[in-house]
Amino acid sequence: MSEYFAPIRDMQFVVKELAGLEQVAQLPGCEEATPDLVDAVLEEAARFAEEVLSPLNITGDLEGAKWHDKAVTMPAGFKEAYKLFADSGWTALACETEWGGQGLPKLVAAPVAEMWKAANHSFSLCPLLTNGAIEALVLTGSEKLKADYLEKMVTGVWTGTMNLTEPNAGSDLAAVRSRAEPQADGSYKVFGQKIFITYGDHDMAENIVHLVLARTPTAPEGVKGISLFVVPKFMVNDDGSLGERNDAYCVSIEHKLGIHASPTAIMAFGDHSGAVGYLVGEENRGLEYMFIMMNAARFGVGLEGVAACERSYQRAREYARDRIQCSDVGVRGGPKVAIIAHPDVRRMLMTMKSHAEASRALAYVVAAAQDTATHHPDADERQRNQAFVDLMIPVVKGWSTECGVSIASIGVQVHGGMGYIEETGAAQHLRDAQISTIYEGTTAIQANDLIGRKIGRERGATLNALIGRMRALDAELAGQAAGSFVAIRKRLHAGVDALDEAGDWLVATYSADIRSASAGAVPFLMLLGTVAGGWQMARAALIAQARIDAGDRDPFYPAKVITARFYADHVLSKAAGLASSVTDGAEGVLALTDDMF
Description:
Layout: H1 8-18, H2 21-24, H3 35-53, H4 55-63, E1 66-68, E2 71-73, H5 78-87, H6 106-119, H7 121-140, H8 143-154, E3 158-163, E4 179-182, E5 188-198, E6 207-214, E7 227-232, E8 234-236, E9 242-245, E10 248-253, E11 264-269, E12 275-279, H9 286-322, E13 324-327, E14 336-338, H10 343-375, H11 379-415, H12 426-434, H13 443-456, H14 461-478, H15 484-510, H16 514-519, H17 521-549, H18 556-570, H19 575-584, H20 586-590
Parallel strand pairs: 3-6
Antiparallel strand pairs: 1-2, 4-5, 5-11, 5-12, 6-7, 7-12, 8-9, 10-11, 13-14
Helix pairs in contact: 1-3, 1-10, 3-6, 6-7, 6-9, 6-10, 7-8, 7-9, 9-10, 9-11, 9-12, 10-11, 10-17, 10-18, 11-12, 11-13, 11-17, 13-15, 13-17, 14-15, 14-17, 15-17, 15-18, 15-19, 17-18, 17-19
């Protein structure tokens, strides 16, 4: 049975050649991210992922998290793995040095996070939520809250959660009814119930810092009346030690399709005396603050899609190499061969491989843009990169996770009937991947954000700038006038044209007919992801060909060109159909009356 091996070679290529590590390392505050340091970080992370986290993946799935008497016990080995994880400094990788972090760029943190998610999806969710809570407190917390909580969270001694959803509210945060009553000492008593809280309780860390949305007594209705509160599992004394147990309890955990080792909690706040909470920032700005966590989490969830592609590809590839079945096609009566020789199995494996590489490249490029948006000394350059990040976050989240599910499903198919059997491991990847398209906002929520806040509101300005960057690659592709590059150029050109057409239609339609525009939102998100992935694959092919032309014999480079050609022929070729669904598909979506379904 195959195990996870971090794709270090491709990660290094993307970080250095596509995402521009050299340029990122020149940004103020990022100078320590030298190529040698980054290589060392990736190699050590790979060792931890392969030797510590991956062996717990199947056992954690089989045992699952257990709830008893308002407390959660993690599967065997998880508590010890988390302590080693925190002691090794992995929780602090990209956090600010002021609070005990290492201050490395997001471009370095992204491939490391991909390794955690590919090695053990369930385990990786704990630091994902903690990192989001850290970011929200760094940007909006008072000095007192920062002093009380950040160092312990950054160093992994404490973990964090995000408490948004309530029964009957779902993604409609305007329906939040948890309440926070002010106290004489400046604190609040929080009352309410939250559902779907990832790592809402566990036994891996000594304290859990819940960030909770609730309404104060004077709050207006709707999303404008939501505030954000820190509600610790254990109170924190003035000297930083832990005090009494707060009135915040896990009253049950969900029984789920996948990620069995990740406890998804129902949290009850204030069932007894009231849960003590502390206001983060200003009243009624909680949703704004929570979106800081949400965007960090959405990018992290997008990496889960990348990881699902990679992990399921690795397992399918190894099975295809070992499984002997049937003669080679066209060889009647010949010896039986490994199924990797069969053309359709190769098509499936290439589909898996190309999506892993394309989604990885796009995510890391967005991570580098986040670093530039944060650290570049020029305000205009920061603004341009932030606009690109804002446009692409829903794509990294939505497109990558949709790819993760479809690629994991193909992985089951490569295994044939054995893929449906849990012992092969292929089914777990599919089960675990399914949730990634849902949490932190479904694909439709990402798509509506994309066409509304990111395209409709600014009349397509950032999208058009991105299309301009894609078109600029055409001249470089024209310089490679033979072989695979003819097909790559042709398909990318057509894909960008389709994206441009669909984008213009959305801009023209959004304000006049929002229902028709919304009917094409998910197809447009998939179109943008498909074309952006093709853009990165074409860039990768050009760089690889330059290495080949310079005499480099590494087989990595011709494989990169061939994979980019496959992506062009089999994935980018679908762009025109997606564009047609955007521009012409609304009538079929909206025509039936409710009682006709």
